[in-house]
Design goal:
The complex is a heterodimer.
Chain A (H helix, E strand, L loop, with lengths): L7 E6 L5 H13 L7 E5 L5 E2 L5 E4 L2 H10 L4 E5 L3 E2 L3 H11 L3 E10 L5 E2 L6 H6 L6 E5 H7 L10 H11 L3 E12 L10 H15 L3 E7 L2 E6 L7 E7 L3 E4 L2 E4 H12 L5 E8 L4 H11 L3 E6 L5 H11 L4 E5 L3 E3 L4 H9 L4 E9 L5 E3 L2 E4 L2 E4 L19 E3 L6 E5 H6 L12 H11 L3 E12 L11 H11 L13
Parallel strand pairs in A: 1-2, 1-5, 2-4, 7-10, 13-16, 13-18, 16-17, 20-26
Antiparallel strand pairs in A: 3-4, 5-9, 6-10, 7-8, 7-9, 11-12, 14-15, 18-25, 19-26, 20-21, 20-25, 22-23, 24-26
Chain B lengths: L7 H5 L7 H26 L7 H15 L2 H24 L1
Classes of the chains: A alpha/beta, B mainly alpha.
């Protein structure tokens, strides 16, 4: 028998909940094994009191709350914002924290009240947390976390949990997902607890503490787009491998690389660019002449005069590049959003971010890429083939978020990081070289981030046969098989 | 597919080959990758855990779910004679 209930206090935020709803929340906590005298209901305006069921009512005054946890003997604080706690939740979460003592804060999955829809949350994603508080109804923190971050803050009123987790991450405390259903909840975009403004405020304060400048735009009540200010004016080298080929796109024939670069030159608002085009020898003279006309002095043509090897071509382009950042790009793309480079660069400059990928659409506007998913030792694309505008209940396609990997069809990485990990592996000339690059970057402790705000068309056929060789899979798996077993970022796409 | 064009741009333009420094940088990438790749391979072969707490638990839950599935149970039943023979071979013939 687990002795968890005696080690945990449950604090229920009553804001925005009707009495009936609150009673059900309390009942679920008691049913989960938390004794009544270890349950607190935090109310907006009231004097401290004790309910008939023995549960204590405390006002949402920060001084009172800080006195409460300081006076508590509990090892864990379960902060409940909405929904019903599952009967096994306490055992699951305390068992997880006992097993992994390095984890300081935990949150979990949930399901809708009728249990018809799973809400599988991503593993801890600090970039995503700035855009969306995806932590769910229930967050459990060791009481020592509050000691380490100095308790609750008055300025975080109505968004105390988000503020606590942001501050815990700032000081390096580990936050982790318990991949199990801990609660049931109703999905709602209604700001019934008036917390959307408070969330925006605590995110702004978090950015200030981190020395990050960003404009915050509200996309939906609880979803924000952050436009990060670019630090300095770093040169971005766009590295494109090509053989100067043409394709039939949108009813007309086009030279892919020329049109891709024309779109970038004419539409991109970021100007400090260099184009490094790695051309096969058979690239027509006319195409090279077109590129020179388009880019002028900002173009570097590099010759590739060997059998096809995507990895080697990209490495050659990177070696020739002079920019601080490399934008790895296929030649069969077309820019949709003019500020695509700013969107990616702003993220790439964030602490801990290793590489940034973009939203790619097929010609028919269905989704080609919204991050990669790795499971069972192989890779695929999240949201592949879904209609544009599709999203999951967590708003994954309107939030910048950490992913397992991104495609090298469009990815931004600092030259330093690219060099540190050895660029693309020559052992994977055609397939999975981007997966390997993502894994190498993640192995350095950096994250891979997807942004839905950098959008491009990628004129790759949906039915393209990637011709993956058994040796490609063997090579990839010899390096990463155990680390590519389970997808924990894009679990809803 | 692109038609082969004349060698004009590739032969005439001075800047299409890498400089010695750039060539060295290119080679350095390959060398670093080989080391990184070997380190990754060694880590794969070691018994030390490579997964985060979240991944570890998720994987364990996946295994439990698989072992609780009808497919798994039917497969175990179908394979029972083979397993029994293997056991007997190990137990009595070796």
């Amino acid at each position: 028998m687990n002795d968890a209930p005696s080690r945990i206090e449950a604090w229920i935020d009553a804001a925005g909940h009707a009495t009936e709803d609150l009673d059900e929340m309390i009942a679920s906590v008691l049913a989960a094994g938390v004794p009544a005298d270890a349950v607190r209901v935090v109310v907006t305006e009231d004097e401290p009191s004790t309910r008939e069921d023995g549960v204590r009512v405390v006002p949402a005054d920060v001084d009172v709350l800080n006195r409460e946890w300081r006076a508590s003997d509990a090892e864990f604080l379960m902060l409940i914002r909405r929904g019903r706690v599952e009967p096994e939740a306490v055992d699951r979460v305390t068992g997880f924290l006992d097993r992994f003592p390095e984890v300081q804060v935990a949150y979990g999955d949930s399901v809708t009240v009728r249990g018809s829809r799973a809400l599988n949350r991503p593993r801890f994603s600090p970039i995503r947390l700035r855009s969306n508080d995806y932590l769910g109804p229930l967050v459990v923190a060791r009481r020592t976390v509050l000691e380490q971050v100095g308790g609750f803050r008055p300025d975080a009123r109505r968004a105390q949990v988000l503020d606590l987790v942001l501050r815990a991450d700032e000081v390096g405390l580990a936050v982790a997902l318990v991949p199990a259903v801990l609660a049931r909840e109703d999905l709602s975009d209604v700001d019934f607890a008036s917390s959307a403004d408070a969330q925006e405020r605590v995110v702004r304060e978090h950015l200030g503490r981190c020395g990050v400048t960003a404009e915050i735009e509200r996309v939906r009540p609880f979803t924000r787009r952050l436009r990060y200010r670019i630090e300095g004016d770093p040169k971005v080298s766009i590295v494109i491998p090509t053989r100067g080929g043409s394709a039939h796109v949108a009813g007309s024939d086009r030279v892919l690389v020329a049109e891709a670069i024309r779109g970038i030159v004419e539409r991109s608002t970021y100007r400090n660019l260099e184009f490094v085009v790695v051309c096969d020898r058979e690239t027509p003279d006319a195409v090279v002449a077109d590129l020179r006309d388009l880019c002028g002095d900002d173009l570097r043509i590099v010759l590739w005069d060997a059998p096809f090897n995507f990895s080697a071509k990209m490495n050659r382009g990177a070696a020739a590049a002079t920019g601080e950042y490399l934008l790895l790009l296929n030649d069969d793309v077309e820019v949709v959003t003019d500020d695509w480079i700013e969107s990616m660069l702003g993220l790439a400059q964030q602490r801990g971010v290793g590489m940034v990928g973009a939203m790619l659409y097929f010609e028919d506007s269905t989704i080609q890429h919204a991050g990669q998913v790795y499971t069972g030792g192989v890779a695929g694309h999240a949201a592949f083939g879904l209609p544009g505008g599709h999203d999951d209940p967590l708003g994954s396609l309107v939030t910048d978020h950490e992913v397992s990997g991104v495609t090298a069809a469009c990815a931004l990485v600092s030259r330093g990081v690219f060099e540190e990990v050895g660029g693309f592996t020559l052992a994977l000339p055609g397939n999975y070289n981007d997966v390997d690059l993502n894994m190498k970057i993640r192995q350095t402790g950096r994250s891979i981030v997807f942004t839905p705000w950098a959008r491009l068309y990628h004129f790759e056929s949906k039915s393209r046969d990637p011709r993956i060789l058994p040796t490609d899979i063997e090579t990839l798996q010899s390096r990463w098989l155990r680390r590519m077993q389970v997808e924990m970022y894009s679990r809803m796409l | 597919m692109n038609e082969a064009a004349g060698p004009g741009w590739a032969d005439d333009a001075a800047g299409v080959e890498l400089s010695p420094e750039e060539r060295a940088a290119e080679e350095r990438l390959a060398l670093v990758d080989r080391i990184t790749g070997l380190e990754a391979q060694v880590a794969e072969l070691q018994s030390a855990p490579l997964l985060s707490p979240t991944e570890t638990v998720a994987l364990e839950r996946n295994v439990v779910a698989i072992q609780g599935s009808t497919t798994w149970r039917v497969g175990r039943a179908v394979m029972f004679p083979v397993r029994a023979l293997r056991y007997a071979k190990r137990r009595f013939l070796s």
